[in-house]
Queue: 2 jobs
Job 1
Amino acid sequence: MALRFGEFELDLDVPRLHRRKRTVELPGRALAVLAHLARHRDRIVPRDELIDAVWRSEAVTEASLDQAVKRARAAVGDDGAAQAVIRTWRGRGYGFVAPCEDVDAGRGNGIFVGRAGLLERADARLSSARGDGARMLLLSGEAGIGKSRTATEIARRAERRGAQAWFGRGVELGAAPPYWLWAQVLRRALSRSRTSPTRELSALLGEAMPELGPLLPHPSRLQPPEPARDAIQALFRLAGALVPALRAWSEEVPLVLVLDDLHRVDLVSLRLLEIVASELLDARIAWIGSHREAELRDRKDAARCITSLARMPSTTSFRLEPLGPEEVGRLAREVADREVSASLAGALHRRSGGNPFFLLQLLELHGPRTPLERVADAPASALPETVRAAIRMQIETLDPPARALLDLAAVAGRECEASILSAASGRSPDAVGADLEAAVDAGVLRREGDRPDACRFAHGLVAEALLDGLGDAPRRAMHAALADALEDRADARHRRAEIAEHRCLAALPGDGGLRAVEACRRAADDARRRVALDDAIHWSRRALALLESETPRPGLRLELLQELGEALLLDGQVEVGQAHLPAAGSTVDTTLLLGPGANPELILPILDPPSESLACPVTREGIHK
């Protein structure tokens, strides 16, 4: 449920405050105070009730409440003098007094990009629900992938065809009473009623009043019957009340019931959904549910309920995948109101992993005047807290060993190999494989094509956030472990650059620094043999830079200068190369570059003009030794 007042929209179910479609950052207690007052806007809320509702069992002073009210007022452009939104009744409490309208959370004129094929299939399925019975759509996918937004878009399209949409949403377990999902749906139903809500509520619930009545408007005006003796009796009593009521409503107008975040819904509400949906297969009702599979791993009973719904003959399941680069470009263009090139769209896609929520939060953080190029290159430390929270939500579904393995995988790079992670972590291949599989199921990692040993992070932001949370010492230790693991492999010779990178990032003055210097020399040597002269120059320079922090080693420094000078000369940078050669008369040993049978045609273009300093002159007739 959401309220719109002035420029603001307050989602009461999450809760979350928006101003002109942008999230308003507000401390949790202040937001909870604002939401509680808005939820009970038909009356004055005593101070004691607010403290109990927001702080619960915590011991706080009234000054804490005063501060929370002050912050809530400031967030909505109000203050103690104007009192246009929150009014103080001295000696009685506070009231929410701003004129407002009841709207469905997230149902503004928001931008919607992609999912064309899914929308067409959903339209076809829901259109049939208007004539020959109920239909259910189950949307799944990772956090931020657009399940709620897609469900809302499907419902809006159904409304344009004459249906009426009611919304309910799961909240964090323990944060709401049982049957809260159904209380939200009935609040929507009663808000659209043409008759007295109290009379209709009494007629609707009948003997089910003890369970749902206290969660609905004006419960004190109703006389509930005796409560049920046990949970099973209460469950079937509610089903007996809801089934005929929903059937009767759907005969007046086709209904679309959008039930969001089912992975958070309490178990009795899910069981009630199972019963009610199975009893209304012939009603003019379309059900749209959304959930995250990863968060159901530790809720076996809830997972069984959702699986049962998915197996119903009227159910169609859709898994939402990330947006492609073109769709990311369209979304960025709509939000930023500027043209987005294909290369920039690709950079934003890599940055966000095609996750619409991540992309929108990045754009919101940097503001409308920030060049999109800066958004694509923003450091991990600049990630919005909303993105960090979504990432934590994904990762916290995993066991501690799997989370530790993800830290190591983030240090390894965007792509990781199970065999390398196993060697670097000291854990068995089977244990590492099981943890990686769990991370894939959670949407944190993805399989890398047809390579069974390889995975990559679903979003670069996830890897960046993990790295940002690691201390310097653990990160260096992981780089060293990865370098050791790579050096022990049969293909180590072909991975010298990767080893050198890890050695450099693990380096500390002393033995670690010298190991990094030697790794850089090997990488430079390998690059020269492959005629990858830019790489050879890069690794030689990194080796020299590392040596600067070591105890002076003149002999080693001369060798490094010689190697760098050779690479520069071979790259055609004659003057710079000669300047790096440590002694007059130094020569470039082309045998390092060209082995037996080498084709002179490949080397001559980079020797323009040919250098007389070559120890083995090269002509089109061959190499002269």
Job 2
Amino acid sequence: MVHIIQTISDNYIIEDDYARCISRGNVFILKTVYNKLKILNSKDIVSSIKDLSNLVYNTNIPDISSIFNHIHLTKREHINNNSIINNSLVPFNMRYNGSDTVKYMLNITSSDINNILKDLNSTIINNYGKDLTVSIISGGHCYENFIMNKELLINVKSLDSLGIATQEELDSLKLDTNKNIIFAQPGCYNWNCALYLANNFGVFIPGGSCYSVCLGGHICGGGYGIDSKKYGLTVDNIKGVELIVFNNNKYKPIYGTATAFNTWYNHNYLKEPLFISLSEQVFTPEAAAWFACTGGGGGNYGLITKYYFDITELPTIPTKTYYTTINIPYYKDNKIMTQQAFSRIIKNYMNYNIKSQDDNKEDNIFAFMFIYYRSSNNLGIKFVVWGNDNSLSPQDTSFFKSIFGDLSNINIYSDIDTINTDNDIYLSNWSDVYNNLDSGIHVNSYSYSSLDVSINYSVNSMPYLLNKQNTNGSGPNRKFKNQCIYLSKDNYLGQTSDDIRITNLYNYFVFKWKVPFWSNSDISISAPENITAYWQLDTYGGKINRNPPKNATFNRRNLICKIQSQCYWDDTLNSSPDISYINYWNSVYFSIADQSINGQKLIDNGVYINYPHVEIKTKYPKKWEEYYYGNMAPNLHITPSADTLYTGTILKQCKKILDPSNIFNNKLTISGIIHTL
């Protein structure tokens, strides 16, 4: 069922109760008496039927016992609802709190589409009007305040089932009438999904390893994780979606399918000018729903209630998985890491990602590279490497030789002269989530050497599910500011021998230099107190880039690396305001992403909609939609070729078709207005 909860009322009885009293024929409870009753009951004055009788001056009111029982039932429900609300209004990012913004919460617990529609249309529209804007929460991991910023919050945390699609669903999806189609609901955690598929079918959905992220927002942004280099993005495996949209003053379902989009793509997109193929008479809601939900971002078009997959097309679980961790600290034996070593390691990592794109064997390797802001834990550059059916030996992968092989002719450390290690920034234990990877079976150990130090690593092996659980990086809920940078083979860090961006990163992270303020470069700012920060670089490409679906919403298929810049802080340790951390981390981000090298900026590679960063819209008011949503057509009179998918333009039309009233929106929602270049 669906429960509507009023979150801002201090009274136990709301207008619905008055309406119920009147509908029972209790004409003696006039509105003035009802209002008095409401106030007094909130103060616990009405505690017996006698109190109620005395209050309304008439002991002969029909059904007075039922009215009293309803009052106390409502009171109990209010207390229970407050518990639900208090738990639901706690997002992953503790910068946000919905208690001052969210007035109503709609708690969806029924998986039946007809029940959901009935309650959506009767509860929301009848009680609160058709113009109420809404936001949606599943896992609550949004990096920006796109969840706690609307009057009505639709809570789909209880839509957490996985199962076999019914015949009715197959008919709606126009899919083959076999039993290979499974559904996954938006409130299902990544970890629960992995357990269900592994235990029942021996397969998995390629995607993220953060266990507490839910499928609702994860998939509709693309779905990327440690399996993606080998098996592609989550959206590359989707067969259909069940999407509830608000159109013509009514909530209704649309079943989007790859088949519907493929039909339009082949028969219209490639053969007609865009002004014809994108018209509402040609571009069907079913095609629009599928495209919007497979890379168009969460909370932009409607309420996703189910994703559909064919279990026979999902990859089987690897026989063995391997992992290792390697930390190269910033200082050792009273010496500091040199800029030469810092730069060489980053460039080697980039070169590996470029060279490995055409090597299927290297698809089995997924490597995190962490570049830490200098801290008291003496972390520096750290690698966490995962191998699917790959032992991580020098014979099985070129990764380690690529990273460490040519360090043999340099000194990694030099004497400390100007750096002060006494006032290092505090780094809380949870930020280094990979420090304690000590489980599994030890397989082998390897070593590489520079002129002054040896780099050693041990490889462990464990079953796929345990390894994936081990490498999750969710951590606890806390305040943070995270961002994204994509790197392509034509535009990446270390592209030139003297890449100033790596030099700046070294100075900011190792020596803690001031950084130009992101919105006014005439000002430079320092890091606030007790900051925990790092850049996480992830290997990319492989299957993602190799022969992807030609009609994939996520059409950036030339990437070699994804950077997730992460900054965390703890109120119990700090006196600095939140904005000081946000401003500092934005300044570091834009000093690198906006720096032009040979006429190119890293930001021009685009950014991941699942890592929203609202200041990008402020910084690039004319380009932000293209950065987040993809290519925009120069005009609507062209007939596109097969090698050009104008993702941004198509998503704009999806918005216009699926959500013309803009009921579902946030600060980075794509508009339904198509501007030609």
